[in-house]
Specification:
The complex is a heterodimer of chains A (426) and B (251). Chain A has helices spanning 5-16, 27-40, 56-59, 119-124, 127-131, 139-147, 373-380, 386-402, 408-424, and strands at residues 83-88, 91-92, 105-109, 152-156, 164-169, 176-185, 190-196, 202-211, 216-223, 230-239, 244-252, 256-265, 271-281, 285-294, 300-310, 314-323, 331-340, 346-355, 361-369. With 426 residues, chain A is α/β, with parallel strands linked by helices. Chain A has one domain (3-370). In chain A, the strands form two sheets. Chain A has a ten-stranded mixed β-sheet with strand order 2-1-5-7-9-11-13-15-17-19, covered by helices on one side. Chain A has a nine-stranded mixed β-sheet with strand order 3-4-6-8-10-12-14-16-18. In chain A, helix 7 (373-380) packs across helix 8 and helix 8 runs antiparallel to helix 9 (408-424). The radius of gyration of chain A is 21 Å and the shape is globular. In chain B, a hairpin with a 2-residue loop joins strand 11 and strand 12 (225-230). A six-stranded mixed β-sheet of chain B has the order 6-9-10-3-11-12, sandwiched between helices. A four-stranded antiparallel β-sheet of chain B has the order 2-1-4-5. In chain B, strands 7-8 form a two-stranded antiparallel sheet. With 251 residues, chain B is an alpha/beta fold. Chain B has helices at residues 42-50, 74-80, 97-111, 119-132, 137-141, 150-164, 180-193, 208-212, 232-250, and strands at 2-11, 17-26, 31-35, 55-64, 67-68, 82-85, 92-96, 143-144, 168-172, 199-204, 217-222, 225-230. The chains are: A alpha/beta (426), B alpha/beta (251). Chain A binds chain B through residues 372-375, 377-386, 388-389, 392-393, 395-397, 399-400, and chain B through 50-53, 73-75, 77-79, 83-84, 86, 89-90, 92-95, 99-100, 103-105, 107-108, 111, 143, 160, 164.
């Protein structure tokens, strides 16, 4: 089917502004991705999947400007021993990065996949993204596969003693970063990957995660407080038997952030948790779009998304659980909640369940509410100021999402950050 | 300590007068009990004194040690020394009991220009006081009042009172929902806090609680006013004859 004229010309304009990197052994994958973009067209306002989030600035030929955010805080995860892999405006910075060697894991730039003949990465690049285009199209992810400037291939073969931290640095006011990471976790291996930092004025990040039977991956991401960023991220994950994938995102502010997670549970007894806590104040638009497919027996999935919004911030949640015919004994859970601190903010939620198996437990809920006045009075009657009481209740609201972070020290660090941010905005 | 003069209060949202010229003085070191039938304004009095929204004072005054309570925010009243033990303590999921207690204590200390309590001193203090009230470590760790039984909730109120050491304690139907043993425990907690510098206002339907917390003065509240004041024997009279007899006698 031919694309509508508007979509066709917008897509062409965007593609004209891009040049495909030397592909080498990935050339075929990149070209196939480009043809997906051309067939699908970039998202437009009339696309159902983009009903609540306007894609124009993400698809425009030129990246919008964003001033470089100056923070007086220590970088996120600073207190943890970690291996840092630094990208400046979407380009790997070897000098700023740590030595990439670490026992239990191999880290290479995607540019080196061909030279190093890294088979697993060659075989994974673009594959999960392509699978994720159905039943819902994600053209910005295909665009990423075709044009990614940089990224890393992370091969987890053991249990590295510290997390791998992908650090994104924003340097130029107009910068258009496209990063693509491929991650393979082998059987019995386990690792934690951290992501943080403002990446560019516009950021398109794609991660393909392939977890073998009994492998485990933890992903903790922090976005913000850079206010002017525009970011779209895709996380594609494929899980083997008895494997575990847990992801948590902390998002603070940002003119436009859309985080998509596309997860397939393909082996029996696998577990996938995706969670997010978002604090938006002012001109903020935050969109969590999740699609989890159960295609094996006795798997568990959890989606826990919490948003605190004020001063005109908008939150979006589109979350789906698809349970295929043979995915018996599925345990699916989905909750999306917003706490609106004033009348100017809004939360738009579209929870979906599509179930073809008959022996499953799937629960979902979505709520929008204000601060509980009874609780607020109770706290104040004990001498706690309105501001501090509101912060306590706000943190309590976010706790269910933050609790999804398995590492308690990490969870505490996240709560401490949130406390700081909330109190400075009081 | 607490001085209430000619207090008139109506509901903010409807034209309904609840308190109609209430006069009451609670001296430091004394326990005053307020008894009265349903709808007489007992809970309203406790809420107006602690600063809950939804009520409008149309006339009269309420002061604590000469300071105008009605002009203060709820947190300022707490720092000034008012404590309300709630009839229905609120459950707050996600806020740990310890965090709550510590935040409250330090907020009050800060408001009074005192130094914050160190984590170690706080822990020591809370453990000792919790032990007296048979509150175990698990209850302290759990979110505020979440999953607590009726008795546990009331004990948790008394623990807060013991930690915050207020000047004026208002107990709103603290006996409701308690079995005899729990009531004894709560009463012991309250009695342990009786002190020359502290006043108590115990609001209750029944005489039962007053067997354990012996009042110095008993007031009967009806139609938004104190209609009769007496000693502990007045509570017994209510127990034996009900409110009807007293109210008939007063009118």
């Amino acid at each position: 089917m031919a694309l509508a004229d508007v979509k066709q010309s917008a897509t062409e304009a965007r593609l004209a502004a891009l040049s495909m990197p030397e592909g080498g052994c990935l050339a075929a994958s990149r070209k196939a991705a480009l043809s997906r973009v051309q067939t699908l067209g970039l998202p437009g306002r009339r696309d159902e999947y983009w009903k609540y989030t306007r894609p124009e600035t993400l698809t425009a030929a030129e990246a919008p400007k964003a001033s470089v955010f100056a923070s007086d805080e220590a970088p996120m995860f600073n207190e943890f021993d970690r291996l840092q892999v630094v990208f400046v405006d979407g380009v790997f910075d070897a000098d700023a990065s740590d030595d990439l060697s670490l026992e239990g894991v191999t880290i290479d730039r995607i540019a080196d996949i061909c030279a190093q003949d890294i088979h697993w990465a060659k075989d994974l690049y673009g594959v999960l993204e392509a699978r994720g285009q159905s039943p819902v199209a994600r053209p910005l992810a295909a665009l990423n596969t075709a044009f990614a400037q940089d990224g890393v291939a992370i091969h987890v073969t053991g249990t590295p003693r510290k997390p791998i931290n992908l650090v994104y640095v924003h340097s130029a006011e107009i910068s258009d970063a496209i990063l693509h990471h491929v991650i393979r976790v082998e059987a019995g291996a386990e690792a934690t990957i951290l992501e943080n930092g403002p990446a560019a004025s516009r950021f398109n990040n794609c991660m393909e995660v392939d977890i073998a039977d009994t492998g485990k991956l933890h992903l903790v991401r922090a976005q913000g407080r850079d206010h002017e960023r525009r970011a779209v991220t895709h996380m594609f994950a494929r899980l083997g038997s008895e494997s575990v994938f847990k992801s948590f995102s902390l998002t603070v502010n940002g003119i436009l952030t859309r985080n998509e997670a596309v997860i397939e549970l393909l082996g029996d007894d696998a577990i996938a948790h995706v969670a997010g806590a978002c604090v938006g104040d002012g001109e903020v638009h935050h969109d969590d779009t999740v699609f989890i497919t159960h295609d094996a027996v006795n798997c568990e999935s959890r989606q826990v998304f919490k948003k605190v919004l004020r001063n005109g911030a908008t939150g979006v949640f589109q979350g789906k659980i698809l349970v295929k015919k043979d995915a018996q004994k599925t345990d699916g859970y989905q909750i999306s909640q917003a706490l609106l601190l004033d009348d100017d903010s809004q939360f738009l939620a579209k929870p979906e369940l599509e179930i073809y198996a008959d022996d499953v437990i799937c629960s979902h809920g979505s709520t929008t509410g204000a601060i509980d006045e009874e609780a607020l009075f109770y706290l104040r009657s004990r001498g706690i100021s309105t501001g501090e009481a509101t912060d306590l209740l706000t943190l309590a609201f976010l706790a269910e999402a933050v609790d999804e972070v398995e590492d308690r020290e990490m969870a505490d660090a996240i709560v401490a950050r949130l406390e700081g941010w909330l109190s400075r905005r009081r | 300590m607490l001085e209430i003069k000619n207090l008139h209060v109506k509901l903010e949202d409807e034209d309904k007068q609840i308190l109609n010229g209430l006069d009451l003085t609670v001296e430091a070191g004394k326990v005053h009990a307020i008894m009265g039938p349903n709808g007489s304004g007992k809970s309203t009095l406790s809420y107006v004194l602690s600063g809950r929204d939804g009520y409008e004072v149309t006339e009269g005054s309420a002061t604590l040690e000469g300071e105008d309570l009605l002009e203060m925010e709820p947190e300022e009243r707490a720092a000034a020394g008012i404590f309300l033990a709630f009839q229905y303590p609120v459950e707050i999921p996600g806020v740990g009991n310890m965090t709550f207690l510590r935040t409250a204590m330090n907020s009050q200390r800060k408001a009074r220009g005192e130094e914050e309590l160190s984590a170690a001193d706080f822990l020591k203090m809370v453990r000792a006081k919790a032990k007296d009230l048979k509150i175990d470590a698990d209850m302290l760790k759990r979110p505020v009042n979440v999953g607590f039984s009726g008795g546990e909730k009331k004990r948790n109120e008394i623990l807060q009172m013991a930690m915050l050491e207020p000047k004026m304690c208002i107990l709103d139907e603290t006996d409701s929902g308690l079995d005899v043993d729990a009531m004894k425990l709560v009463a012991e907690g309250v009695n342990a806090l009786r002190d020359e510098g502290r006043g108590f206002l115990v609001i209750t339907h029944y005489q039962r609680l007053l067997d354990h917390i012996k009042p110095d003065v008993v007031h009967i509240l009806a139609g938004g006013r104190i209609v009769k004041t007496g000693g502990p024997e007045l509570a017994l009279e209510v127990e034996n004859n009900g409110y009807a007899g007293i109210l008939a006698e007063v009118s």
